[in-house]
Each structure stands twice: as structure tokens, then as C-alpha cells.
Design brief:
CATH superfamily of the largest domain: Transferase(Phosphotransferase) domain 1
Number of helices: 10
Shape: globular
Order of helices and strands: EEEEEHEEHHEHHHHHHH
Largest sheet: 5 strands, antiparallel
CATH class of the largest domain: Mainly Alpha
Strand order of the largest sheet: 3-4-5-7-6
Structural class: alpha+beta
Distance between the termini: 30 Å
Oligomer: single chain
CATH topology of the largest domain: Transferase(Phosphotransferase), domain 1
Radius of gyration: 20 Å
Number of strands: 8
């Protein structure tokens, strides 16, 4: 899962069907304020934290909003109990390992501390992202206007926030040919590379995901399916591989429709690159970006 940032961050994680239903489904809270993003140089202990509220539940665990008693800074605390399903704990161990390796990366939601208690409970203290999931954002603020979408896409910065289905690769992605991630946003070639583009290109796949995400922000529901439908993996695969790319409703601008069409070409080689999209009229109009 990735978190996307403009001037402030937005979560583009959507609560749609995932490949493994046993994976912990923690709805990570979203974008940090500048104050919350500054971490203390001193180590934080579990005793320093005060629980404020529950942010979400998952298989075998809970995510809390917590506050440091001395500094009053807020964090997200992911807690998995010692008696949780072994599969859940294996996934959490993998996530802990990745977080330890990427603690200084500007592209990963910051992990401040990891607590392992004698009882077997494991807790991960992470930066607090205070704008909610995409689902809650759409419910509270409604759909996005074209100008707001253009601003988001133009200034997009991705931060990874959830490693529940991640793998640690040695040097290259060539060793990995399994499916990981949320299949609703996978591009056609991820399911059928021979038909839709040969070798899988993660960059082109991200462009497809961007197009779907912008459509969802505009329409208020996942664009490949009727509003409210939560299908299984096979239904999604059929919609992505055998259906036509989704189309925007009537009334949108020609620039927005063109931008989305450049993202949602079923053949990966026909999709525009990020550099090309940044020069597209949809992003350049009403902007001072100089494109």
C-alpha cells in the first residue's frame, strides 16, 4: 500500500478485495502534520505512550492513536497479540524486518519504535497520518473536482505504508513472479503478460493504477464495477483483462478524459510515462508548473 502526498499527504489505499484474506487489514491513518513528522531524538518506551482511540482492527490486532506523555506528539501504534494466528504473526515479522531496513527512507511511512513484550505481543510505533483512508475521505469531503485532481496528480509523492504482503528481494525483481498487492488496481499485463505487454513493467503498471485512482476520486466508487459491489478475485480479473477500460461519465473536460485514457491503455507499451503525463494539458492548465 502506498500513501500519496500533495502539499499534505493523501492515502490512496482503498478497502477493496485483497489476494490474501488472511492478511491483517489495518486501515493506516493518513497524512502527518509537519509537527507530527518530527521525531524525538530520544528513544520512546511503551510506558511513554497514552492510548487515545482505536483507529482500526485487523486479524489478531488493533491500531491505536497514541500520544507521547511528555512531548504530546501523536503516533499510530499497531498492536498484534501473542495468541494471534501464526500466519498473521509471520506477516508482521516480515513487515518488522522491512521497516528496520527502510527506517530512513523518505518514501516509507516512518517507523519510530518496535516493542516486543514477554507476553508475545508485538507493537509497531509509526508516524500518525491524520487524514483517514480514501474511503473516509470520500465520505467526509465528497468527490474531487477536476482542478483538485490535477493538483494531486501534478504534485504526487508516494510513501509506502503497509508491508503485509511484501517480500525482501536480494538485488532484482526478476526473482519474484508471484502476485502481491491489491488486485483491484493491478494492470491487465500483471494477470496476462503475454497478451498485454510481455515482461511486466512496474512503472507502466503504476500508471494504470493512477488512472483508476483518479477516476475513483472523481466518481466516488471503484470505476470497473457498479457502486457498492465488492467482488471476488476472479470477478476483478475478468473485468480488468476481458472488459473494456472504464470510461468517465459525460460532462468531464476533454483534457481530463484524455489524461485518463492515456493511463488506461490495456497494452502497457501504449500507456504514457510519468514524464509524458506531467506535460499533459490536464496537468498544465491552470497551473504555474511551467509545462
Amino acid at each position: 500500500m502506498a500513501v500519496v502526498r500533495e502539499r499534505r499527504q493523501l492515502s490512496l489505499r482503498l478497502p477493496l478485495p485483497e489476494i490474501s484474506e488472511r492478511r491483517p487489514r489495518f486501515p493506516l491513518p493518513l497524512p502527518p502534520t509537519a509537527e507530527n513528522n518530527r521525531s524525538s531524538s530520544a528513544a520512546i518506551s511503551a510506558a511513554d505512550l497514552e492510548k487515545l482511540q482505536v483507529l482500526g482492527h485487523g486479524n489478531g490486532g488493533t491500531v491505536y492513536k497514541v500520544r507521547h506523555k511528555r512531548t504530546a506528539k501523536t503516533y499510530a501504534l499497531k498492536l498484534v497479540h501473542g495468541d494471534s494466528d501464526p500466519a498473521v504473526r509471520r506477516q508482521l515479522r516480515r513487515e518488522m524486518d522491512i521497516l528496520r531496513r527502510t527506517t530512513d527512507s523518505p518514501h516509507v511511512v516512518r517507523c519510530h519504535e518496535i516493542f516486543e513484550k514477554p507476553s508475545g505481543d508485538i507493537a509497531i510505533l509509526m508516524e500518525y497520518m491524520d487524514y483517514g483512508t480514501l474511503e473516509t475521505l470520500l465520505k467526509s469531503q465528497g468527490t474531487f473536482s477536476e482542478s483538485r485532481l490535477a493538483d494531486v496528480a501534478r504534485k504526487m509523492e508516494v510513501k509506502i505504508a503497509d508491508f503485509g504482503v511484501s517480500k525482501i528481494m536480494c538485488r532484482t525483481l526478476d526473482a519474484c513472479n508471484s502476485y502481491v498487492g491489491t488486485c483491484a488496481y493491478m494492470s491487465p499485463e500483471r494477470f496476462d503478460p503475454e497478451t498485454y505487454g510481455g515482461n511486466y513493467d512496474g512503472y507502466a503498471g503504476d500508471i494504470w493504477s493512477l488512472g483508476l485512482t483518479l477516476m475513483e476520486l472523481y466518481m466516488g466508487h471503484f470505476p470497473l464495477l457498479p457502486a457498492g459491489q465488492r467482488p471476488d478475485w476472479a470477478t476483478l480479473m475478468c473485468a480488468i483483462c476481458f472488459g473494456e477500460p472504464p470510461a468517465l461519465p459525460e460532462g468531464v473536460s476533454d483534457e481530463f478524459r484524455s489524461f485518463v485514457e492515456r493511463c488506461l491503455q490495456k497494452e502497457s507499451s501504449k500507456r504514457w510515462s510519468a514524464a509524458q503525463l506531467l506535460a499533459h494539458p490536464f496537468l498544465c492548465k491552470d497551473s504555474r508548473s511551467g509545462c
